[in-house]
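User: I'm curious whether this sequence folds into something compact or stays loose and floppy. Could you predict its structure so I can see for myself?
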Amino acid sequence: MARGLFITLEGLDGSGKTTQLKRLAAWMQKRGSAPVITRQPGGTATGDRIRELLLDSRSAGLAPMAEMALMFADRAQAIAEVIEPALAGGKIVLCDRFTDSTEAYQGGGREIGSDTVLELHRLICGDLQPDLTLLLLPSLEISLSRARRRNDRDTARSGKDEGRFEQEQDEFHRRVWEKYREIAAREPDRVVTIEGDLNIDEVHEQIVEAVAMRLSEAHVV
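Assistant: Here's the prediction. I'll summarize afterward.
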């Protein structure tokens, strides 16, 4: 059986990743494919517990290296439990965030640096790379505004706090945004950047175009 295809969506919180992942999955289902959908952190029972710790504002004192270690612990579990079995079974995997997020947020935002992140990825994740990464890069201001409004709304509705990163200063998020651009420039064959303050339909159209091309190249109907 041919190995499946691994597609990731990346970007700042508030960039529209989750919405676009759902729309992409629906587009694939109409074409007869049933992708496996997952997210990071989270996506497994263990990962969901790690996610709660990482994103809760009460974890404000978490050291940068501890934060990064937890991200990779979550990722190792997701690869073993969800991603690798699906790819080995010939399925398409859609993942909301992967190691690019760690390089951007911990490598860039926390200023740990890319080399440490990439070495841990090689050691812990077996250097598993996505076949295609869709990087959503609306303006920094738009992304932050959306993310903070969403977290306030979600916390009011559910009482669940996932706003720890949104509470960081704007300069932190600027370093994240710039690191994402650096990753895209370094790996143009893998990363497709969708940039600018586009509406949902415009972003979806660009995503579908990029995915359709990659599916054709991989001879996936």
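Summary: The mean pLDDT is 93. The first strand starts at residue 5 and ends at 11.
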